[in-house]
Amino acid sequence: MPEAFILFKTEPSHEREVYLNLLDDQFVVEVHALYGEFDLLSHVSADDSKTLTDLLLTKYRQIPGVKETRTLIAV
């Protein structure tokens, strides 16, 4: 199962909204709030690489309140 860690920068005061949106996603294993350059960290596990790519490109970047993401693919 392909896995990734995604760092999120959110619009000011949208951290909670994005956090709750991620918690409701079936592919999200865990979500953590952060202090520093990024606001949230999520651990995602998908069934295959294509699904992971689709999630990263079309779903997580489109969550309202997300300003920027940085993805780390686990090997």
SSE arrangement:
Layout: E1 3-10, H1 15-23, E2 28-33, E3 40-45, H2 49-59, E4 66-74
What does this structure look like?
This protein is of the alpha+beta class and 75 residues long. The protein has one domain (3-74): 2-Layer Sandwich (Alpha-Beta Plaits), CATH 3.30.70.920. The protein contains two helices and four strands, in the order βαββαβ. The chain has a four-stranded antiparallel sheet, with helices on one face. The radius of gyration is 11 Å and the shape is globular. The chain starts with a strand and ends with a strand. The model has no long low-confidence stretch (mean pLDDT 96).
Helix content: 25-40%
Which spans have pLDDT < 50 for at least 5 consecutive residues? none
Please indicate the count of domains: 1
- Under the CATH scheme, which architecture would be assigned? 2-Layer Sandwich
Task: Give me the side-by-side strand order of the main sheet.
Answer: 2-3-1-4
Structure class: alpha+beta
